[in-house]
Design a protein that fits this description.
With about 280 residues, this protein is mainly alpha-helical. Helices cover about 55% and strands about 5% of the residues. The protein is built from 6 helices and 4 strands. A two-stranded antiparallel ribbon has the order 1-2. α2 packs antiparallel against α3, α3 runs parallel beside α6 and α5 packs antiparallel against α6. About 30% of the residues are buried.
Amino acid sequence: MSRALPKYNKRRVAIVGGAAAVALSGAVIAGSALAGETSQSNSAKPLAATGTITCPDVKSQLPAVPASAQAEVARNLDLLNTQIAEADKRLADTVGQGGPNFVQNAILGPLKDKRTSTIDRIVIAIGRKGTKPQGLDSLAACTLGNGGVANNGATAAAGAGASQQASGNASQPAGGNDAAGNAAGGGAGTITCPDVKSQLPAVPASAQAEVARNLDLLNTQIAEADKRLADTVGQGGPNFVQNAILGPLKDKRIATVNRIATAIGRTAAKPQGLDSLAACTLTK
């Protein structure tokens, strides 16, 4: 009796140990399968590649640059490169944000506006002592290359909508939390800008036509920004209005105000400090 018990105990230990090994093997297999499924799910996300910003080369399209303009032109050419680098970084930092037009409205559009202003400064600098180059504005627009998708974030918006429907909130529109992106909640508001005309000195007769044309352009820019504000209510993230509307508007106004100052300065004292009038605000 005393000898039988150890045999029984040994057999029970062997059985229990074998069962534990089988269970452990099953857990390992299940864990491996689960890990494989998770990896596959993550690799299926369409937001892995953001692409890069591709812009036309401006330097190669310039005529001979007068010696007096070379420093200013070089500084603005460097600025064009900086603007592309900043846009590339923003593209990478905002993967999955915004609606179907986020990249165009919040990255490529503002980049084009910045490049237009910078190119205008290059043209003005060259034109002071040389032949003013024409058509360089056509080099301002950039594209999304290397497999990037311009509707960056559309998949994320669709996923958000599916999640809301699954939780019984299908009546709430996808991306509803982004309505604050227009800084107006339910309404678009209007753009308010400082008045430039009232801050000008006496305009020489030779500059009056050019100054009047650029003052009209300032009004057109505000009207276009107001329309864009109304057309994009609810799009983008919390900084959408600043990045996609007010920021580009400021860049356009700086270029226009600089043309006004340059036109006056050809035959009279060049007005100073007009750049401070470029920034606009959003009001209800």
